[in-house]
C-alpha cells in the first residue's frame, strides 16, 4: 500500500545481482521516487454504472490525471465516497450499482474497501499474475481449498489478451506502458514470425526514391519504416465482487406470494489497463450489435458520410478494455435474457464481461491454430517458404514449438481455473448467468487440449527431421573424406623413406595411378550398391534374415528328430 505498486518495482532486494547490460526493470527512478509514488498512489479511473429496472443505465466517471493537484484529488475522493454511500442506500430506482475500476491504486483500494466493506483478498487476488513464485517471494498468495473458495464473495476470470505491433519499437513501447501499470502484468512476444509478417526488402531503386521523397518533403524517417509485425501476449485477470448482503436471486414472502427482493445490490469489477501502442490482434472480437436490415432507414441516402466506428474513441485509436466494457454494458439489448426469474440488471454486466473474455479466448485460439498450421506446412512443404534452408529452418520451427509448449498448458490451466470457480459451483449466485457460456468455454478448452497434443506431435516430427538431416550430412562428409584416402596413403609411404627424395617423379606416378584406381573402385562400389541385385544381396546377408534362416533350419531338424523318435 505504501509502495503503490508491486514490490519488485520499488527497489532491488538484498542479494539480487543487477546485470550491467540489461535495462533496469524497476520503474521507480532514484531521483524522483516520492513523485512517482504519489502519482501511482493517487491514480484513479472509476466508472459507476447504475442499472435501472426500466432497462436504462446511468453512467458516472471519476478520473484523475497524473498531473492532478491536491484540490482535484480531494474533490474526486469526496465524489467517489458520496457515490458509494448513495449506492449502499435502499433505492427503488437503481436496482444494481457497479463500480468498474481500471488498474488499482492505494486511494481506490482504501475508498472502495472501507466504503463497501470488501475483503482485502479481493484486491490482492488482482494485483499480481505470476505463473510460479520463487521460494523467497513474500507476496505469494497461498492456494486455498475449493470449499473455502466457494465461500468467497467474488470470482475471477483469467484470459490471454493478444496484441499486434507493426515493428519492434511499438512492442518495446507497449512493454514500457505495461510496466507503468500499478498491477503486475507482463507482455511476452511469441517470436513466431514468418515471411508474411513483414514487408520485403526494398530494392536499390526503391530506397533511392524513398530517400529523395524524404529529402523533398522533410518527412520523419519513422513514418517510412517497413512493417515487421510482432505479436505479444499478456496474461490478464478480471475480478468481480458482489455485495455479500445483496439479495440477488433470493425471494421474500409477502401477502402476494413469493416476490424477488432487489434491495441493496452493488458490485465492483476490477479491470486492468490496456497499452496504447499496437492494436488488438485481428482488430479484436466481432461486432455484437444487431445489423440494421436493408431499407429500414428511409433517410439512409441523405448522409453519405461513413460513420465512425463505435469501438474507436475520438482520437481514432482503438478503445481500451475499460472503455470496451462500458460501451457494451450500455447496450443492454445485445445480451440474452436470464431465465428462472433471475435479476436482469445483474445479468447484463456479467454477460458483457463474459462476452469480452470469451472473445479474447477465441482470438487466442484462432491465432494459435494459424501458427501451428504454418509450422506444419513448413514441415510438409519446406520449399514453399523462402527462408527454409535445411536444419536452420527446422531448428527455428522447434524454437517456436517450445514457446507454445510452455504457454498452452498455462492457458489451459487458466481457463480451467475460471470454469471451476463459477460453472462447477452450482450453488453460486452467479452460476446461472454462466450456464449460457458453458458450451463456448468447453469448446475453447477442448481446442487448447487438442493443440497441446498437436504441439507434442509436431515437436517429435521436427526432431526426427533434424536427426535425418544430420545423418544425411554425416554420410556426405564420409564420402568426402574417402577422397583423401589415396593422398594420405602416398604421404604415409613417402614419410617412411629416410633417403632424399631423389625418385620424386616415380612417386608422383605411383600416386596418380593409386588415386585413379581408388576413385574408380569407390565409384564402382557405389554404383553396384544401388542396383537391384545389390539390394537383394543386402537383404539375404542381413543379420535378421540369417537368424530367421537358422531358426527355420533348427526347427526343421528338431521336427525330423521327433518324427524319427516316434
Number of strands: 10
Number of domains: 2
CA radius of gyration: 35 Å
Assess the beta-strand content as a share of residues: 5-15%
Shape: elongated
H/E element sequence: HEEHEHHHEHEHEEEEEHHHHHHHHH
Q: Let me know the average pLDDT.
A: 78
Taking the sheet with the most strands, its summary is: 8 strands, mixed
Number of helices: 16
Note the gap between the termini.
Answer: 98 Å
Membrane topology: Multi-pass membrane protein
Keywords: Coiled coil, Membrane, Transmembrane, Transmembrane helix
GO molecular function: cobalt ion binding; cobalt ion transmembrane transporter activity; magnesium ion binding; magnesium ion transmembrane transporter activity
Subcellular location: Cell membrane
Summarize the structure.
With 566 residues, the chain is an alpha+beta fold. The protein is 48% helix and 12% strand.
Amino acid at each position: 500500500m505504501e509502495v503503490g505498486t508491486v514490490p519488485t518495482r520499488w527497489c532491488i532486494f538484498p542479494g539480487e545481482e543487477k546485470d550491467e547490460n540489461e535495462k533496469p526493470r524497476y520503474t521507480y527512478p532514484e531521483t524522483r521516487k516520492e513523485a512517482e509514488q504519489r502519482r501511482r498512489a493517487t491514480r484513479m479511473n472509476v466508472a459507476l454504472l447504475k442499472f435501472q429496472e426500466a432497462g436504462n443505465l446511468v453512467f458516472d466517471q471519476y478520473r484523475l490525471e497524473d498531473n492532478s493537484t491536491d484540490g482535484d484529488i480531494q474533490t474526486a475522493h469526496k465524489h467517489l465516497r458520496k457515490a458509494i454511500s448513495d449506492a449502499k442506500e435502499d433505492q427503488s430506482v437503481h436496482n444494481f450499482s457497479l463500480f468498474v475500476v481500471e488498474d488499482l491504486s492505494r486511494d481506490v483500494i482504501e475508498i472502495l474497501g472501507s466504503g463497501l466493506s470488501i475483503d482485502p483478498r479481493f484486491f490482492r487476488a488482482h494485483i499480481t499474475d505470476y505463473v510460479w513464485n520463487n521460494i523467497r517471494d513474500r507476496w505469494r498468495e497461498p492456494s486455498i481449498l475449493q470449499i473455502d473458495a466457494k465461500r468467497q464473495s467474488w470470482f475471477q476470470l483469467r484470459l490471454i489478451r493478444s496484441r499486434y505491433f507493426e515493428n519492434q519499437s511499438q512492442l518495446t513501447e507497449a512493454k514500457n506502458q505495461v510496466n507503468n501499470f500499478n498491477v503486475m502484468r507482463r507482455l511476452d512476444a511469441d517470436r513466431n514470425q514468418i515471411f508474411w509478417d513483414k514487408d520485403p526488402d526494398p530494392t536499390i531503386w526503391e530506397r533511392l526514391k524513398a530517400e529523395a521523397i524524404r529529402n523533398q518533403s522533410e518527412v520523419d524517417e519513422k513514418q517510412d519504416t517497413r512493417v515487421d509485425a510482432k505479436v505479444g501476449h499478456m496474461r490478464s485477470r478480471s475480478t468481480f465482487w458482489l455485495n455479500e448482503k445483496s439479495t440477488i436471486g433470493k425471494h421474500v414472502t409477502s401477502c402476494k406470494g413469493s416476490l424477488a427482493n432487489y434491495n441493496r445490490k452493488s458490485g465492483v469489477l476490477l479491470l486492468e489497463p490496456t497499452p496504447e501502442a499496437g492494436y488488438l490482434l485481428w482488430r479484436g472480437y466481432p461486432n455484437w450489435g444487431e445489423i440494421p436490415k436493408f431499407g429500414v432507414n428511409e433517410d439512409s441516402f441523405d448522409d453519405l458520410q461513413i460513420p465512425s466506428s463505435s469501438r474507436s474513441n475520438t482520437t481514432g485509436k482503438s478503445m481500451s478494455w475499460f472503455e470496451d466494457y462500458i460501451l457494451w454494458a450500455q447496450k443492454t439489448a445485445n445480451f440474452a435474457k436470464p431465465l428462472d426469474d433471475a435479476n436482469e440488471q445483474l445479468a447484463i454486466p456479467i454477460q458483457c464481461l463474459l462476452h469480452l473474455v470469451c472473445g479474447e479466448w477465441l482470438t487466442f485460439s484462432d491465432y494459435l491454430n494459424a501458427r501451428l498450421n504454418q509450422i506444419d506446412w513448413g514441415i510438409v512443404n519446406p520449399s514453399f517458404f523462402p527462408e527454409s534452408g535445411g536444419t536452420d529452418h527446422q531448428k527455428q520451427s522447434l524454437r517456436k514449438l517450445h514457446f507454445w509448449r510452455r504457454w498452452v498448458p498455462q492457458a489451459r490451466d487458466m481457463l480451467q481455473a475460471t470454469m471451476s470457480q463459477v460453472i462447477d459451483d452450482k450453488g453460486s449466485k452467479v452460476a446461472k448467468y454462466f450456464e449460457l457460456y458453458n458450451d463456448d468455454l468447453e469448446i475453447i478448452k477442448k481446442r487448447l487440449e487438442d493443440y497441446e497434443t498437436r504441439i507434442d506431435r509436431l515437436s517429435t516430427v521436427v526432431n526426427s527431421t533434424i536427426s535425418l538431416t544430420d545423418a544425411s550430412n554425416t554420410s556426405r562428409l564420409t564420402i568426402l573424406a574417402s577422397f583423401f584416402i589415396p593422398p594420405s596413403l602416398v604421404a604415409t609411404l613417402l614419410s617412411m623413406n629416410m633417403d632424399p627424395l631423389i625418385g620424386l617423379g616415380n612417386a608422383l606416378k605411383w600416386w596418380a595411378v593409386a588415386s585413379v584406381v581408388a576413385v574408380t573402385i569407390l565409384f564402382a562400389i557405389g554404383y553396384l550398391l544401388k542396383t537391384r541385385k545389390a539390394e537383394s544381396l543386402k537383404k539375404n546377408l542381413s543379420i535378421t534374415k540369417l537368424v530367421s534362416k537358422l531358426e527355420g533350419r533348427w526347427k526343421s531338424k528338431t521336427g525330423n528328430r521327433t518324427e524319427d523318435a516316434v
